[in-house]
Amino acid sequence: MLNTLPILLKNQRASLPITPPPAPRDDDDIPLLCELFGADNSFNQTEPKTAKTIEDLLAEIIKHKNNGFELNYKDSRHHDVSYVRVPKTLNDNSSNNQKWCLDDVIRVNRSRDDDEFGSACRVVNYMIRFYKDSSIAALEKQGIPV
User: Fold this and answer.
1) Contact 128, 120 (CB under 8 A)
2) CA-CA distance, 117 to 120, in Å (whole number)?
């Protein structure tokens, strides 16, 4: 039987299964990591020391490859992939001071055929669709009639 973690959902108690750590991957999936971690290609990503080393390696790669707050690379199919670092904000003031990350997200989200206006419209539509109450509250706070 799976281990479960009790959580509260709107005054109801529910149990969700705890996801076990991923099984060690096939060497064919991660040849470079296997090469880095040993000549015999025995690599177990679930070992705490190995996981920590991978995190440190990722931090160094990000530091080396990042372009401001955006990280770009080409995947195995030669498609452009972008990640934008989004800092945690504790209040509206800190959010206003770090609005650049949303500017980057909107710029990265553009399609080939449209500009940042179209991208921003898609983001706002998403927010209204999935976060309607929060979106309405934010519009009212900005003095925009709803």
Assistant:
1) no
2) 5
